[in-house]
Amino acid sequence: xxxxxxxxxxxxxxxxxxxxxxxxxxxxxxxxxxxxxxxxxxxxxxxxxxxxxxxxxxxxxxxxxxxxxxxxxxxxxxxxxxxxxxxxxxxxxxxxxxxxxxxxxxxxxxxxxxxxxxxxxxxxxxxxxxxxxxxxxxxxxxxxxxxxxxxxxxxxxxxxxxxxxxxxxxxxxxxxxxxxxxxxxxxxxxxxxxxxxxxxxxxxxxxxxxxxxxxxxxxxxxxxxxxxxxxxxxxxxxxxxxxxxx
Length: 246
What we know:
It is a multi-pass membrane protein. This protein is an all-alpha fold.
C-alpha cells in the first residue's frame, strides 16, 4: 500500500505541474519537485534508526547541492540561468561517478554492514560536505553576475576581476568547495573505493578546468590577474594553475 500510495502521489504531482505550468517552466518545476522529494526522503531516513540513516544524510546533501546551484544562479546571474544550472546533467562522467558510489554503498552494506555504521566517520564526511558547499555558495554570491557554470570565452561589459571575500583566500573558491564536497559525500557514505576514485577524478578535472579558465582570465585582465595569481593560491592541493613561459 505504501509503495502504491507513493507512486500515485508522484504521478499526481507530476500531472498537476504539467497542468499548472507551460512547457519550459514545467521542466524547471519537475526537477525542483524531484529534488524536494529526494530531500524529504533523506530527512525521513535520517530521522530513523535504520542502517540507511547515513544514506539519508547523503540524499539531503546531494539534493540540496543541486537545488541551491539553480537557486543561487537565479539570484546572481539570471541571464545565464537554464535547466543545466541544476547540474543534474553535468556530464556522463559525473552521473557514472554518482552511480558508482550508490553501487559501492549497497554492495558493501550487504557484504560488510559494520563498515556502514561508523558514525564518527560519516559525521566527518557530513562536515566536509557542509563546509564545502557553503564555501562554493559563498564564492558564487561573492562573484555575483561574474559567476557562470560555463567558462566564458568573451568578456562582457560587466565582467570584473573579483578578489575580495573568499576570493582573497583562494583564486578558485567555488572549485575548492566542490572538490571537498564531492570527497565528503563518499566519506559520509564510508565508501573507501570511491573516496580514492573521487579524489583522483576531481583533482584531474579541476586541474584541467583551472588551466583552461586561467588562460581566459589572463586574456581578459592581463597583468591585473597575473599579480593576483602571484599573491593568492589556487586552493587545491598541488594545483598551481596555468604555467607561463617567459
